[in-house]
């Protein structure tokens, strides 16, 4: 059994990690930490987990083979020294995902720049071999995961793309904030950021595409859809072939069908699972490619991908504890 | 033109007052106050009101014929001295709705007990004549309005009733709070209070029925439904007759129909209007009456009723500035 | 491996059965039937199941150890002869749940009355021993499951109860209907049936309590909450003790806590799981008990309970393929 | 008083017309037609309108000064002969909005081509003078209204634009359809059409911009947001100036603000009103303009704009019966 600790377990990503790890056949949870809720049972914060015999602690002296850092952006780099060397670390913040240059440009100052190059970018479909040997893994962002996996087959062929994102409220975290209360946040199509979104940095690094994000909050608790537009002379058939590389990927489903009900990726179809669904259309008249990429932001966009990385880094079957079919309708 | 001021205009009831008063043909808004947002334009808080040339102030030296107090419960009694005598006051808090005895039992200590008897309980369908002459009006609560209007015809015949309420998030006000953020508050059927709810006090006072409230928060931004159960030997026909008293009420719709699509009151059918829809069913086998009462909590359950009270108190047509048909579907 | 067939697999309960059975470690799905979609891949109807290599068939000549009938009410009794004797049958319709007397009173004529007594009522927490030996199992309704499990400890002590139900749209099935389209069905608190609801029959049979259902459709896709009211002299402590009988039940969670965030059962906390959460409150002033019972209508209220019954009837660990923690937030 | 008839009054646009006309101070409704509901009271279909003394008829021999055709696309051209010459006609279908060439390309065959040129395109902000004299008015589509008003200032300067639309369920009409039922349609981000959307035709005609629509259904009952992307060298200041032309428009609000809470157009802020909110951002790094345009699809995108056209065509104040502030929060 792998001993796992979750640091910062009171947020949504942290709660989802506890949920997935508690069901994982090869994992034993040895600690879940929270400053604010130290001493409380886990279900006081995550009511779905009632029945799990776990309490939050603020003591970092735990015994772990793998430590998941699920703390806010900017926190990981401040606390990581406490854990270095004691266990494999999977960081779910944005602190170690991109090069120092990109970090400075999109985020600002970094207090631990010497560590950045030690981290492997934990997107298994692209960096599986490096993850196998990694001690430090930077888990990708949810928006970035959706966009990178869709654009990666076009690396080298496409230089820029418009990315129109539709995201859910759980991506904003478990924080009080007037703009997030139910009367304000329900039934919106709210432009969270018109352009220059931080998650572009990961896309640039991994695909060389200058992705231009515009992020819209919609009335979802979970899930996201990225709609990606770029110019290219191709055909629907050739597009299809470009995605063949993913045919053996356990968590990518290429959505392609003819006749009857035509479906394209929709976050509704992946909720509760580690799948990312990718689809495409070719607008011949305007020589435009349109890609669609949907995932559950807390699973493939967060905790699920972290568990996938753990499986790989510990030599387990990559799908262990992650083979959940999406819950539908929901 | 009636000069109107809204004290505490940054909450949802306050915003709805501003909206209704701005459209009222006989009203001129002379001040909207907010400590937190003083100096800001109204649309910074209420984005629907973009285009209205109003700013929040924290100066109480305004010129007004009527002052609406839309401050939190417990605040009105602290600040009311500033306004007494200068204008008619319509208080939307719970501070002056019930007798001192009931107040102490359901709320606690009162700092202005001598004023309680000076207030008229502003439920026009019951107290219209007193409202005409009132200087001080206590505007009823949203839950109480729905339940009192449904139960009033049974006053004297019924001694207790079970009241199962389904309420919306706007009733909780515009306050940051982790339990209220969208991921936590969406898709709930959350028991807000299993029993001994404060709004029972108004029902007891107005109907002599010991109403026993259980309040459930559901996934609505606006509206509420009260389902009311009590034992009684009667018939559907006799029940119908008991509601004849409301036939001339401009804002009560009795929902009764046979054949085809059978509808009972639903908050969805009254949103955006000052209507309360009341329906009923008789369970002959168990000799039970079931009443259903639906309204928009911010209008008939708040700002709309306050404007209705203003119209009456100033001798205007009671429906002036309130004849909006509900927006549907929504 | 148990060979399982799902007859009527295109509805929501059918789809959920396929989902759960496909993930079950001891089950092999040998057939999924649908007249309307025969020949189509499963994901044409259930888009979450993309990737499963299954097609609908309308051929009943399949090889199965257990047959799940997930057809509409009234259909099971018409087609059951085709399957009798060939396999264990778990019927998810209402056709064989209650005695002929109750059936006639609540539903009408029965075309297979001689079979009713052959069926075991498949509520494991009450009939586990009979289910172990059963060939024919009638899977309980979703509303009935919630209410029976809450009321069962009071069997003999309580004669009638008011049951106010809040239910979701998936309970209405996958059928086109103007009243069910999104613009009409969103944001409702719609009284589906004021009284005399069919699901009362199961409650009467199992608990001897004359439960009086009033069913409200709320804006949920999954989940239900039953709020149950009855008069009784007791105490909160004694109420708690009455639920001790459930302490070893793997799928019942008794919700009881003091201090901090007070939570009562909410469907939001059980979605995606086979749990039923039961809570209670005692209103001493009015000598009233209030029970709260929440579950996922497609799992513990349908497909999950059917798999639980299968596990028991085939001598497997009762929780096999069902130990999913609820997905939250959702 | 203007005598008004609504042909096809049982749909959502028809219901909204009845609601607005019933509140209009200069209108008397003389007929509302529906084949399916002839003889029924209006509230059997539109439950918000309970209390209005109107019944559906299937008799076209009514007395009217203005006739609103709110029938499905393709129907208007089949029935229009019945009404020609008897009254001003405002057609809310797509039948007479675009030139024959565009119609053939985007829709197909037209059975009344000789009438197309007789119609004025009823977008008051662009065609006010022609509408004043018009007998036949083609009311714009909801998506087209949002996009044209945003793009019109760029006419001549921009040749193509990517248009990512987020639309609500009421735009799909009041029709039964499995894909539209609440369990299927809730919580989606469903690509309704990847490209080549019919509403592009109106945009091309009015702005000469080759708008490339991708339409996403989101979990809204009302409202839509268009996000529009195109390349252009400009500045935020110059963009602002381009919208000055709209400063005197009563129903356009330009959303531009600095500091504090930054808001951009959101359908949530216009529901229940005839406003269209337009905002913009300039991405200097990529020399891209991003426009945002939000409206209530049943009001400014349908019935409200039709009433605005009626007001203009009958010489009334353009805002009469339309000065409703948006309902918020909702």
Automatic annotation (TrEMBL), chains A, B, C, D:
This is Putative [LysW]-L-2-aminoadipate/[LysW]-L-glutamate phosphate reductase. GO terms for biological process: L-arginine biosynthetic process via ornithine; lysine biosynthetic process via aminoadipic acid. The active site is at 142. Involved in both the arginine and lysine biosynthetic pathways. It comes from the Archaea. Belongs to the NAGSA dehydrogenase family. Type 1 subfamily. LysY sub-subfamily. One of its GO terms (molecular function) is NADP+ binding. Keywords: Amino-acid biosynthesis, Arginine biosynthesis, Cytoplasm, Lysine biosynthesis, NADP, Oxidoreductase. InterPro entries: AGPR, AGPR_AS, AGPR_dimerisation_dom, AGPR_type-1, LysY, NAD(P)-bd_dom_sf, Semialdehyde_DH_NAD-bd. Coiled coil: none annotated. Signal peptide: none annotated. The gene is lysY. It catalyses: [amino-group carrier protein]-C-terminal-gamma-(L-glutamyl-5-semialdehyde)-L-glutamate + phosphate + NADP(+) = [amino-group carrier protein]-C-terminal-gamma-(5-phospho-L-glutamyl)-L-glutamate + NADPH + H(+); [amino-group carrier protein]-C-terminal-N-(1-carboxy-5-oxopentan-1-yl)-L-glutamine + phosphate + NADP(+) = [amino-group carrier protein]-C-terminal-N-(1-carboxy-5-phosphooxy-5-oxopentan-1-yl)-L-glutamine + NADPH + H(+). It is an enzyme of class 1 (oxidoreductase). It comes from Thermococcus paralvinellae. GO terms for cellular component: cytoplasm. It is found in: Cytoplasm. Residues 3-134 form the Semialdehyde dehydrogenase NAD-binding domain. Its EC number is 1.2.1.103, 1.2.1.106. HAMAP family: ArgC_type1, LysY. NADP(+) binds at residues 10-13, 34-36, 297. Pfam families: Semialdhyde_dh, Semialdhyde_dhC_1. Pathway: Amino-acid biosynthesis; L-arginine biosynthesis; Amino-acid biosynthesis; L-lysine biosynthesis via AAA pathway; L-lysine from L-alpha-aminoadipate (Thermus route): step 3/5.
């Amino acid at each position: 059994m792998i001993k796992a600790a979750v640091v910062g377990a009171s947020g949504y990503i942290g709660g989802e990690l506890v949920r997935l790890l508690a069901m994982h056949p090869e994992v034993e949870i040895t600690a879940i930490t929270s400053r604010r809720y130290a001493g409380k049972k886990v279900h006081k914060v995550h009511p779905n987990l009632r029945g799990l015999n776990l309490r939050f602690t603020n003591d970092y002296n735990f015994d772990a083979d793998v430590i998941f850092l699920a703390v806010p952006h900017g926190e990981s780099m401040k606390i990581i020294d406490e854990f270095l060397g004691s266990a494999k670390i999977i960081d779910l913040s944005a602190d170690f995902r991109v090069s120092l240059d990109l970090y400075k440009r999109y985020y600002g100052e970094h207090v631990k720049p010497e560590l950045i190059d030690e981290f492997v970018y934990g997107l298994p479909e692209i960096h599986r071999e490096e993850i196998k040997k990694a001690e430090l893994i930077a888990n990708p962002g949810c928006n970035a995961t959706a966009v990178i996996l869709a654009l990666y087959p076009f690396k080298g062929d496409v230089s820029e793309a418009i990315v129109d994102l539709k995201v859910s409220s759980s991506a904003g975290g478990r924080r009080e904030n007037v703009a997030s209360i139910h009367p304000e946040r329900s039934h919106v199509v709210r432009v969270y950021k018109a352009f220059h979104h931080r998650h572009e940095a990961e896309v640039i690094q991994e695909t060389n595409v200058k992705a231009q994000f515009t992020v819209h909050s919609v009335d979802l608790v979970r899930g996201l859809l990225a709609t990606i537009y770029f110019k290219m002379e191709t055909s629907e058939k050739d597009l299809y072939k470009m995605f063949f590389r993913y045919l053996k990927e356990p968590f990518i489903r290429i959505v392609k069908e003819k006749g009857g009900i035509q479906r394209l990726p929709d976050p509704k179809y992946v909720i509760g699972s580690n799948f990312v669904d990718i689809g495409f259309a070719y607008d011949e008249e305007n020589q435009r490619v349109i890609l669609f990429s949907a995932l559950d932001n807390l699973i493939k966009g967060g905790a699920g991908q972290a568990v996938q990385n753990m499986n790989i880094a510990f030599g387990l079957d990559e799908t262990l504890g992650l083979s959940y079919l999406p819950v539908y309708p929901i």
